[in-house]
Amino acid sequence: MTSLSPALKQATPVVVDHALGSWIHGTDGKDYLDFTTGIGVTSTGHCHPKVVAAAREQVGKIIHAQYTTVMHKPLLELTEKLGEVLPAGLDSVFYANSGSEAVEAAIRLARMATARPNIVVFQGGFHGRTVAAASLTTAGTKFSAGFSPLMAGVHMSAFPYAYRYGWDEAAAVRFALQELDYLLQTRTAPNDTAAFLIEPALGDGGYLPTPPAFMEGLRERADKYGIQLIFDEVQAGVGRMGKFWGHQYSRATPDILITAKGIASGFPISAIAASTETMSKAWPGSQGGTYGGNAVSAAAGVATLEVVKEENLVENSRIRGEQLLTGLKDIQTRFPVIGDVRGRGLMLGIEFTGEDGKPDASTAAAVQQATTDQGLLTLTCGPAGNVVRLIPALVVTAEEIAAGLDRFEAAV
Ligand code: PLP
């Protein structure tokens, strides 16, 4: 009998029959409250009627038209809609299928725009699983061990992980910026450095918001040295963190922004945005792919951005996120195994630690398993695997958050 690759080992035993909004109905006949959303993808909830209708309509018009051969309407419409939400000055967009491909496109663009080779990444960053994206990923050895050599020209600097250092945030930011300055003096000179690549919150690296002052420190150095600042908003963007873009908690804006996941409610599409001047450095043929910017995905993307606006989902993410964070902090007071609770919007992490304060992956794994028994789907993350992450749909209701908190506490 043919079986699935062990690389596809599931975090839960659930097989989906159908799903709607925040709920997954399993083939076991049970209903599960889904706080995983396909790893932060089904932003408007499962099978939002408007997204389903847009995709159905598009399937009957044209499914695929390779975008360097003939253009299609949905991609033009999506580009216009993105223009309403992109940071000022990022007025040119390129499309791919996945987060990893968009990360690669951003790296290629930064290298072409600066004619410099090196990329600086930050400890705990996750940028994908293609060989180049895995080379930029430092969120755990499982993402790159065993298939070296990786891409050359990647340098890792410190991330201001205040909780783990036992410092306040300002001290952690000072330290991480000093480390970066040292790296630029000793390992990769500014005129060899094409880009800084950072997430507005570490995703697979532990659901840790990046301090605004750190983002601003990167912006200052990027301006000073002509380095491209790339924000990987693949997971944090499209309302996930309670603002449209995760980086909007800081005053820093990127030279290149990467988006994917939440942009089309589950249809595969990703994009990078940059200024027209920067984007013009990527000549025809240097970027692209057969399936990039698929018509059905783009139509779903247009519908998704409309739903996010019409249903005020960024605000819902902020408000429901506060409800969830407050509830989790309350649960933390009853369970000393919970060392830290953090996050913004609907991207929240619960870090499990032992009595010695060290990461406790086995408790996190046991809690994650137990949530499934309670009818709540969750995931773990973090380089040490000791963080349970909660990523509800942006349409989640107050009642669903309350039910999720009850089930989570029962699991702990
Ligand atoms: N960048 C970030 C921040 C991510 O969270 C992910 C996926 O989780 C990726 C890139 C890679 O995206 P994909 O899995 O679609 O290739």
Describe what this molecule looks like in 3D.
The structure is a single chain. The protein has 412 residues and is of the alpha/beta class. It has a domain at 52-310: Type I PLP-dependent aspartate aminotransferase-like (Major domain) (Aspartate Aminotransferase, domain 2, 3-Layer(aba) Sandwich), CATH 3.40.640. 37% of the residues lie in helices and 18% in strands. The protein is built from 13 helices and 17 strands. It has helices spanning 37-40, 49-59, 73-85, 99-114, 131-135, 162-165, 169-186, 212-225, 276-279, 295-310, 313-332, 361-373, 398-411, and strands spanning 16-20, 23-26, 31-34, 92-96, 118-122, 154-157, 193-198, 201-202, 208-209, 228-232, 256-259, 270-274, 338-344, 347-352, 376-377, 379-381, 387-390. A seven-stranded mixed sheet has the order 4-12-11-10-7-5-6, sandwiched between helices. The chain has a four-stranded mixed sheet with strand order 1-2-3-15. Strand 5 (118-122), helix 5 and strand 6 (154-157) form a beta-alpha-beta unit. Helix 3 (73-85) packs parallel to helix 10 and helix 12 (361-373) crosses helix 13. The radius of gyration is 21 Å and the shape is globular. 52% of the residues are buried. The structure holds pyridoxal-5'-phosphate. Pyridoxal-5'-phosphate (PLP) binds next to helix 4. This is (S)-3-amino-2-methylpropionate transaminase. InterPro entries: Aminotrans_3 (IPR005814), Aminotrans_3_PPA_site (IPR049704), Class-III_PLP-dep_AT (IPR050103), PyrdxlP-dep_Trfase (IPR015424), PyrdxlP-dep_Trfase_major (IPR015421), PyrdxlP-dep_Trfase_small (IPR015422). Pathway: Amino-acid degradation; 4-aminobutanoate degradation.
